[in-house]
């Protein structure tokens, strides 16, 4: 697993949270209460959980919580999976900068209007099941820098 990267020079991103399933997505979106947030998959999730799993999870979350939130599927160094994800409508991806074929993925992502990140921005990882007040603090922007 690679360390979190600083936010990209391009887009300004909302607070980011790594989720590991539907329950995490529901928790984050409930606590966010309509505020912008960036849901991230676990590192490399496209490789072990699959694009279909992520798309279904995000589809259910969008149906239950429409609003100003974004999401990104972590493809690690798998450019072919990133391309497959774009093909089925995924518009937020993480693909390592040194991934073979990344330039082609970046060009296609740009043409699709997709967000392509080099790595996870500073984020809260729900793997450790942090207390709800910690999540609320993170989403309010009171937490500063780095993965928690």
Number of helices: 6
What is the fold named in CATH at topology level?
Answer: TIM Barrel
How many independent structural domains? Answer: 1
CATH class bucket: Alpha Beta
Proportion in helices: 25-40%
User: What is the ordering of alpha helices and beta strands?
Assistant: EHEHHEHEHEEH
Structural class: alpha/beta
How are the strands of the largest sheet arranged?
5-4-3-2-1-6
Low-confidence stretches: 144-148
β-strand number: 6
How big a fraction of the residues is strand? 5-15%
Overall shape: globular
Topology readout:
Elements: E1 16-18, H1 22-32, E2 38-40, H2 45-48, H3 51-64, E3 70-74, H4 79-87, E4 92-94, H5 102-112, E5 115-117, E6 123-125, H6 132-140
Parallel strand pairs: 1-2, 1-6, 2-3, 3-4, 4-5
Describe this structure in words.
The structure is a single chain. The relative contact order is 0.21. Helix 4 runs parallel beside helix 5. The protein is globular. It starts with 15 loop residues before the first strand and ends in an 8-residue tail after the last helix. It has a 6-stranded parallel beta sheet with strand order 5-4-3-2-1-6, covered by helices on one side. It has 6 helices and 6 strands; from the N terminus they run βαβααβαβαββα. It has 148 residues and is an alpha/beta fold. It has one domain: Aldolase class I (TIM Barrel, Alpha-Beta Barrel).
Question: How do you describe this structure in short?
Answer:
By secondary structure, the protein is of the alpha/beta class. The protein has helices at residues 22-32, 45-48, 51-64, 79-87, 102-112, 132-140; strands at residues 16-18, 38-40, 70-74, 92-94, 115-117, 123-125.
